[in-house]
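Let's sit down with a protein and look at its sequence and fold side by side. We need material for that, and I hope you will provide a protein of your own picking. Once you have written the record down, we can walk along the chain together.

***
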Amino acid sequence: MSDALLLNAVLWLPVLGMLALPLLPRGNDAAVRALTLAVVALELACAAWLLVRFDGSVAGLQAETRLPWIRAWGVEYHIGLDGLNVLLVALTAFLGPLVVAGAFSAVQRDVKLFHAMLLLIQFTMLGTLLAQDLFLFYVFWEAMLIPMFLLIGVWGGERRIYATLKFVLYTAFGSILMLAALIYLVYTLPWHGGSVSFAFEYLYRHPPAAAAQNWLFAAFALSFAIKVPIVPLHTWLPDAHVEAPTAGSVILAGVLLKMGTYGFMKLGVPLFPEAARFFTPAMMTLAVISILYGACLALVQTDIKKIIAYSSISHLGYVMLGLASASLLGIQGAILQMVSHGLVAGGLFLMIGMIYERCHTRDLAAYGGLAKLLPVYSLFFMILTLAAVGLPTTSGFAGEFMVLIGSFDAAWPLYEQGHAAALVLAGSAVLGVVLGAWYMLWFAERFLFGAARAPHQPLVDLGRRERLILAAIVAAVFAIGLYPGPLLEKTELAARQYQKVLQGSAAAEVRP
């Protein structure tokens, strides 16, 4: 099978799974779970093979498929892998089986619909990452709202309606502005061969006039910033995480938030390079504010889900800082940090779901002494906590360290030119590491150690299924932390191209 066919299989396998689910006998929940797990496991196998075969030294798209879709509008079905999306596609495929397996015991009603929504959101997230046509990208971008809306709204907590409406209103507002900018962008550019084109490669070669770039970039950036989310556009995230079922929280933290940072890499900067350079100081400032503000809010939470939710705001701030640094180390660190955060935050949300199934509370004050009661659970939790802190040998250290070095590398020349604020920003980001260690270790100390609270029922440690799920995540965390080189090789060329665009030294043909 060619790489192109294999990539189409990765994208469309969830759809085939959705179509097969109604054929299963009603009430046979075990068959529904088994089929869904088989589909996403096969998808992971295909994605892993594509990751191994991906050649980071080759510019442009690989495993590409390009077919006409809506000829009158110049829209194509155009998908492909490049250095910016290959790791995120692998991350999405990797988390898929873990999310499905993690929901085996957590979801007991409307099981068939629930798994259909898991497959649908897998399809739309992969489509967003793989799309190389702006119209196709926007269709997948908007379609992601549907399954997440239902996952939170149907299987969420007591305030699920409030949380899901807030999530949709925030993201829909940004998406409407992006749609208006998209239409203006495409229909004011020179037409290719007598017809309009939505192809990324064509839009990269024809940036809009400088007078229009600022507001076009602002419209796209607002939509992406809401999805990240960047402070002060973050308030939907804690509510969505708290009310979402465990699977929804893992998907949200693991992949969905990365759509915003990926949007900046793939569209925001390459489409509007002059505006991106103009707004870079503001982006770096907001990134550092998100790092510190998210960490400070995590310190004062008593809901264990909210602690991880606010930590996500802080960690995604590092990603934005790296992308805005225009440093190769910072950009590659940002890509690596996206993968690391997806693994670590996804794993922590899975573990919170596991303990919630046993104790039915998210109140931190209700816990304590779990290290004695649940030793295997506590071991995995401590490993992921240390990875979130950025302990050397874990993926968290590799990504954050590269971002910090990259930000200092970008700030020092500005400092020498008399712009001391740049160095202050980079130094403030280091404070976020200290705060991150503070709130995560404080959380672990109260959660796992100290006086044991009397549980309402005897607590059972992790079963084999749960251990396998967490072992897979921990193995990936250590593999990336100990040996990030192969992943960095696959992203280096794309990161260099992105860097050249942001620095203003790139010709059109080297844009991502």
Summary: The first strand starts at residue 62 and ends at 70.
